[in-house]
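can u do me a favor
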């Protein structure tokens, strides 16, 4: 799921669930329950891809499933790389000493946010994801991870403070279950989203509610064996664009999907992601 901006609220979508939006709310709740309770399907991650042209892959996922390597705890691994774009992935379930080490990098606001999480697992994962983000940004800026300063947009999108050495570095973060990814782009807005690929009984209803007419048509035309991947491919693309815009799905926007270049990727077995860069 996404990090630092509001989670998707389907009740914000125009006309969702009738006048009171209860139908959309039920879909949203059921979707999150399905994600929480189900086990990921085994998708094989792609090899790190070096390309100078960012284009949407074809409908088939065979190119993503051919080869790949598994992430290892404590290692930040590149999963996608190209001209002015890099996507890095890491595991969030690590040893306690690693969690403590990452916690040293956090500022007071981040520590309070971590302390406010009810689940110990969620607290640990937040600390690791934020610590890894700080390490990645620090390596690009030539500063200490604890010295990385962030600012936040109106809807919570993080960005580098104006006091940082490079305001030209854009980034986006997403985490789902035990995996987090950080997308970096030089000079262009970027958005990223990953999801654990899980059975979603309400996928057809959610697709009809959230997808564009053309996206829904192409999704509905997929065979039964391809629909789950097809759903998450489209879902992560929508989420990534909303992250690039700094808003949540359902918020009014003048941006069009044609304004973005899209890549799909597999950061780890059982996960699927999309990253977008503004043209």
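np, heres the sequence
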């Amino acid at each position: 799921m996404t990090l630092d901006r509001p989670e998707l609220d389907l009740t914000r979508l125009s006309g969702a669930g009738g006048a009171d939006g209860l139908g959309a709310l039920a879909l949203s709740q059921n979707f999150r329950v399905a994600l929480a309770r189900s086990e990921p399907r085994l998708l094989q991650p792609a090899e790190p891809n070096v390309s100078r042209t960012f284009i949407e892959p074809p409908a088939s996922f065979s190119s993503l499933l051919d080869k790949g390597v598994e992430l290892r705890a404590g290692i930040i691994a590149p999963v996608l790389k190209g001209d002015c774009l890099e996507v890095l992935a890491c595991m969030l379930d690590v040893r306690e000493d690693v969690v403590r080490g990452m916690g040293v990098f956090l500022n007071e606001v981040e520590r309070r946010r971590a302390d406010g999480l009810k689940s110990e697992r969620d607290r640990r994962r937040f600390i690791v994801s934020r610590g890894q983000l700080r390490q990645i940004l620090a390596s690009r800026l030539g500063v200490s991870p604890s010295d990385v300063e962030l600012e936040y947009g109106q809807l919570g999108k993080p960005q580098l403070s104006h006091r940082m050495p490079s305001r030209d570095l854009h980034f986006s973060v997403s985490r789902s279950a035990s995996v987090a990814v950080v997308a970096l782009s030089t000079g262009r807005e970027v958005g990223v989203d990953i999801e654990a690929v899980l059975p979603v009984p309400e996928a057809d209803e959610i697709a009809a509610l959230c997808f564009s007419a053309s996206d829904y048509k192409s999704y509905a035309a997929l065979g039964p064996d391809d629909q789950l991947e097809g759903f998450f491919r489209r879902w992560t693309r929508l989420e990534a664009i909303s992250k690039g815009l700094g808003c949540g799905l359902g918020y009014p926007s003048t941006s069009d999907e044609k304004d973005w270049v899209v890549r799909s990727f597999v950061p780890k077995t059982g996960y699927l992601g999309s990253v977008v860069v503004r043209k």
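Confidence is low (pLDDT under 50) at residues 5-26, 32-69. hope that helps!!
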